[in-house]
């Protein structure tokens, strides 16, 4: 067998071995998304009705803006957590030549160091 065929066979075998493990995770993810969707719709309906009583008529746009700001704030932390979980975080390093290097944190974190200035090093405090 050629190396390419054996590589493809091995990759396909690993993929098929992982499918039974992934199905429960996929189903639980779908259930979570469904419950989250229903919960968000109920909360939004409650918030809109209460804000609709306070901001009537033309001022309804203010109520919609408050709801949109609240949702975007809540989602920003969720998205930040999701990005951190799948390791899409990036480190940007400016070189002496003025170029910017962008690297995934997982590649650079092991090489991070903590430089302590001489004044702090001699004080004996951490």
Automatic annotation (TrEMBL):
<keyword id="KW-1133">Transmembrane helix</keyword>
<keyword id="KW-0812">Transmembrane</keyword>
<keyword id="KW-0472">Membrane</keyword>
<protein>
    <recommendedName>
        <fullName>DUF1622 domain-containing protein</fullName>
    </recommendedName>
</protein>
<feature type="transmembrane region" description="Helical">
    <location>
        <begin position="26"/>
        <end position="47"/>
    </location>
</feature>
């Amino acid at each position: 067998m050629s190396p390419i065929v054996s590589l493809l066979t091995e990759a396909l075998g690993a993929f098929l071995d992982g499918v039974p493990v992934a199905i429960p995770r996929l189903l639980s993810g779908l259930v979570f998304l469904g419950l989250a969707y229903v919960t968000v719709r109920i909360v939004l309906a409650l918030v809109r009705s209460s804000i609709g009583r306070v901001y009537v008529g033309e001022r309804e746009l203010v109520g919609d803006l408050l709801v949109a700001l609240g949702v975007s704030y809540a989602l920003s932390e969720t998205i930040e957590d999701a990005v951190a979980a799948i390791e899409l975080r990036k480190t940007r390093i400016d070189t002496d030549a003025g170029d910017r290097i962008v690297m995934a944190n997982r590649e650079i974190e092991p090489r991070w160091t903590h430089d302590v200035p001489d004044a702090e090093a001699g004080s004996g405090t951490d």
